[in-house]
Amino acid sequence: MMKEKVRRVLAGLLVPALVWVLMGCALAVYHAAPEALALLEEEGVWTEDNLTVLSAEEADTALIFYPGALVEPASYLPLLEGVRQMGVSCIIVEMPLGMAFLDLNAADEVMERFPEVEHWLLGGHSLGGAMASQYAARHADRAEALILLGAYIYGDYPAEQALTVYGSLDRGLGTGLGYTENVVILEGGNHAQFGNYGPQLGDPEAEISAGEQQAQTLEAIQSFLAGRGLL
C-alpha cells in the first residue's frame, strides 16, 4: 500500500515536471533569420499545415526534409532553394515540439499528400537527419536516396544510397561514422550553418560563412544525385 502511494506521488510530481520541460523546449526554438523568412514570399514556396513546400516546375522527384531539434523549418529555405533549382521539389516537415523523434513517420503523410511525385528522397539535419535515416532504413523501398547534414546513418540503410555532409568543426560527427562512402567533410564548417538560424549552443564558430558552407553542400548534393540518375 505504501509503495503504491509513493508511486502515485512520484507520478504526480514527474508528469507536471515533464510538461514544463516540453513547454520549455517548445519556447527555446532556433528562429529562422530574416533572409530565410524572405524566401517564403517566393513564387512556388508556401506553407500548408505543418509543411513548408518548395515546388520545382514539372518535378517528379521530391526531398522530404526533417529539421534539426528545435530549429524553425524556414531556417533551411536558403539551402533547399538551391536544391529546388536542381529540379527537385523540397518539403520541410515541422515536427511536434521541434523534435523529429516525436513524428518519425511524418514522411508517410507527405507521400500520401503528393501522389504525383515518382521519386522520393529523405533528408534532414542533426536529429532530423538521424530520424530521416531511421525512417529510410525501415522503408528502403520508398526512399531512393538519403541526404544527411550534420548527421550519419542511423539504422540499416545502404551507405551507397546515402550522402553524409558535415563540417570539420562539428564536435559530434566523425567518430560515430562507421562508413566512408559518400562522406563529404566541409573544411571550416560547423554544425549549425546548414540552416540560417544563427549560433547554436555548444557549436564552435565556423571558419567559413554560412553561404560558403551551403554552397559546398549544394555541390555535394548535386554531384551525388546526378551520380544516382536522380537529376
Automatic annotation (TrEMBL):
Signal peptide: none
Keyword vocabulary terms for this entry: Hydrolase
Listed GO MF terms: hydrolase activity
Pfam families to which the protein is assigned, alphabetical: Abhydrolase_5
Domain of life: Bacteria
UniProt xrefs under Gene3D superfamilies: alpha/beta hydrolase
Coiled-coil segments on the chain, per record: none
Alpha/beta hydrolase fold-5 domain sequence ranges: 62-214
Cited SUPFAM superfamilies: alpha/beta-Hydrolases
Name of the protein in its database record: Alpha/beta hydrolase
Organism annotation: Candidatus Faecalibacterium intestinavium
